[in-house]
Specification:
The chain has four helices and two strands, in the order H-E-E-H-H-H. The chain is 33% helix and 7% strand.
Length: 118
């Protein structure tokens, strides 16, 4: 059954549709709204902001991550918390499922002024 659901989700993604992905029990236990980046429209960003209510993230291939030299947010906080002690409190070392989430820096579109980084 799970492989049938995964195959259906892959087909939906390939058609440019949103899919819902549930995190496992005992972790975040939340549902993410996912769509392939090449299909995302301004209306989709509105939907993500309005209906999903969380972060809007873009996954990048490790080769791109290395070429752009993007730091993990955890490492960025750790490297400069001696100068900014408040950052030490932001290092997620007390989460039961993950001490080093694969988040990097936030970005904003240069021509928007929402105050929210995606």
């Amino acid at each position: 059954m799970p492989s049938k659901n995964i195959s259906k989700a892959i087909r939906s993604l390939a058609k440019g549709e949103f899919v819902l992905i549930y995190d496992m029990e005992g972790r975040e236990e939340e549902v993410d709204l996912v769509k392939l980046a090449e299909y995302v429209t301004p209306e989709d960003v509105f939907r993500l902001r309005h209906d999903a209510g969380g972060l809007i993230c873009v996954a990048v291939h490790p080769d791109i991550w290395r070429r752009w030299e993007l730091p993990f947010l955890h490492d960025l906080f750790k490297s400069c918390y001696n100068n900014y002690r408040v950052l030490e409190a932001l290092i997620p070392n007390d989460i039961p499922y993950d001490e080093k989430s694969a988040f990097s820096v936030t970005v904003n579109h240069r021509k928007t002024f929402t105050g929210v980084t995606d």
